[in-house]
Amino acid sequence: MRGDARSYAAARKERAADIDRWLADLFRTAYPQPHGGREGRIGLGGAKSGFSSGDERGAGISLGGTGAPSAGAGAALTGTGIALVAVGSLGRAELAPGSDLDLVLLHNGQEDIGRIADRLWYPIWDSGLGLDHSVRTVEEATKVAREDLKAVLGLIQARHIAGDPELTRAAREAVLAEWRSDSRRRLAELHESADKRAESSGELAFLLEPDLRDSRGGLRDVQAMQAVAAAWVASAPGPRVREAYEFLLDVRHGLHLVTARGADRLVLQEQDAVAGALGLLDAEALMRRMAEAGRTISHAFDATWRTVDRLLSGPAPRGRRPLADGVVEHGGEVVLARGINPKNDPILVLRAAAAAAEAGLPIAPATVSVLAAQSPPLPVPWPDEARDALVALLGAGRAAVPVWEELDQAGVIVRLIPDWERVRHRPQRNPVHRFTVDRHLIEAATGAASFTREVSRPDLLLISALLHDIGKGWPGDHSTTGEIVARDIGARMGLVPADVDTLATVVRHHLLLPETATRRDLDDPVTISRVAEAVGTREVLELLAALAVADGNATGPAAWNTWKASLVSELVRKVRSALSGSPPAPAPSLSAQQASLARHGGGAVRVNGGAVTVVAPDRPGLLWRAAGVLAAHRMVVRSASAASASSTAVIEFAVIPEYGTPPDPATLEADLRLVLAGRLDIEQRLARRTRSVRPARVPVAPPRVSLVDDASQTATVVEVRAHDRPGLLWRIGRAFGECNLDVRAARVETLGAEAVDVFYVVDRSGQPIMDAAQRVQVREHVLAALR
Questions:
Q1: What DSSP string runs through 455-493?
Q2: Each residue of 130-169: pLDDT tens digit?
Q3: Which residue has the higher pLDDT, 648 or 388?
Q4: Per DSSP, what are the bridge partners of residue 356?
Q5: What SS3 state is found at 43?
Q6: Which of 607, 614, 622, 611 shows the shortest CA–CA distance to 663?
Q7: DSSP H helices in 556-664
Q8: Are 602 and 676 in contact (CB under 8 A)?
Q9: Coil, strand, or helix at residue 162?
Q10: Burial of residue 533, with CB atoms counted within 10 A of its CB: 0-12 exposed, 13-18 middle, 19 or more buried
Q11: In sequence order, what are the beta bridge partners of 363?
Q12: Would you say residue 455 has pLDDT above 90?
């Protein structure tokens, strides 16, 4: 289905006009015009109404039967004391194909109003349209609006359909008068309601499956701004917000067409179809436009509430407090000092931004507009003062995020860093990432500010954090392309060649530490030597270590946790030692607790928080059998390693429960003994669990199995990427066992719904797999186990 979004706005108005005429006919039937009443024309004109797969613009639900639309329908009965009023989407003439009708029947005390209402509502229900309705006098409507936020927001934008227009006018004027007179209390209530919606529904610009109506930056935020404007406290939303709002209405319109029902949540499996309905290339293009619209609305929403707070809190203190050269604070905002001309100072915009972030203040909207319109381009390479101002801005930490957003909305950032345009609003369509690429970069940079005292070059840390994913705007491996782009930007910013090299190296290897720590055996000397060779210097190592934390935290909880932090810390310690020339540490021996357990022989289990120690007689397949027991008890394995002493194997698992509290260690131990004795059918248990798991709602990529060359001299490294499911580690391990291989160690990581598992395997003689045919067989056997 491919439509023309430009026609959607017209289709919504046409449908509203058709519904108007039909409702006016119903009203006339339910309440025949009394003798002497005057008739007037209403309605917006138009053609078909409703929703049909045959009309790309959203026409078609048959209203049929008595009261079907007729040309010229629509009577206004003046002085009759009864009126039909539309609120909600019909009141705003924004009726999408699947929208319900919200109607209010106003009256001045008619005794038979119930009968009239029934004669209106039943034909609407019979038509199949959803209906939210109420019957009120003007006084009752005003009273309800006084206490019910939803009611007052609807009545503020109420639109007369039929009957006595004076009654409609009286109700609107009474509601608006109270809304304005009680604006301090009501606007605070409105703001609190918006905050609760945002907390519940998230931020539209950064969600995989946004709620078009209730998410922060969604349709209701624009309607809230319109309500603020109706209180005469702030201006109505401007043209950029209106354009963003119309785009979200078009997306909702397309969603209703694609799903053939009213819906507000844009789920993953509908995004390509909705993109097609709007004439966009694909879901990626749709979600990028969505992110831009949501951020435009969120930015305007924040500015509106700053205006509300400033006006309702009384006059601001007079006077101007200097913040930086040419920049002062005035009335709680950052403005330019008197007599300052931005045309003469290209660095002023960065200086003002840094001053605002360091003071924790917003830049006044008028000041941002002036700076955006009048600031000349920075010379290339940048002067030192410009780069220092950028570093100061980023170094302010979290306070820099809203200031950066102000500059970005005004188009300043892409003029300072032209390559920013390629990542601006770019979605990251997987559940691990909680932000678009550009927002992730500024979040990482401001998060890195916490580590500036732990590195020798805090300036390079902040700049590399800002640019570490800049390659995602280009095809190919973003670390490789990012290195090239970072070199260009570093030179543009005026960094000396040695610093450009360091910046490029950090961007190129920004994933090296977390990926190595979670996917390689840190006790293998090859692992440490390869990382040391890649980073080259301790300066780069400390920058990468700080960036790993900032990047992980800015990505989301699935990307960074205490388990990963501890592995990265261990890796950094070992690489630092290698770079200093210290001999590699010997392979770890059993701890006192492990040795004590080993002396007891087989089948012992110890659970200490997220650490599970399993001790059993050493035998092939022990690791994956133990993993099967853990999976059967709903434990998710994060990592696994093995050691042995006196023919007894000691396996350490890092685990987390899928939900709830961990199982009883005694139960785990009992099941482990049973599975080792061949008396527990783990496969059957896991098969039941697999059947109970809901399949993925969207197509998932096929699994991939790779044998990584030169990653170890003592084992063959096998990397498995697959959609996560219960017992995945057990299934893979069993495939290795069927190939007569033992798993010496494993690194297991789950990123959202995707598993990235790495295994160090050896043959029964304890050697890596060297035979090419056997390597192919192992890969195919593991792939078969994953299907």
A1: SS-HHHHHHHHHHTTGGGGSSS-HHHHHHHHHHHHHHHT
A2: 999 999 999 999 999 999 999 999 999 999 999 999 999 9
A3: 388
A4: none
A5: coil
A6: 607
A7: 562-579, 592-599, 622-632
A8: yes
A9: strand
A10: exposed
A11: 334
A12: yes
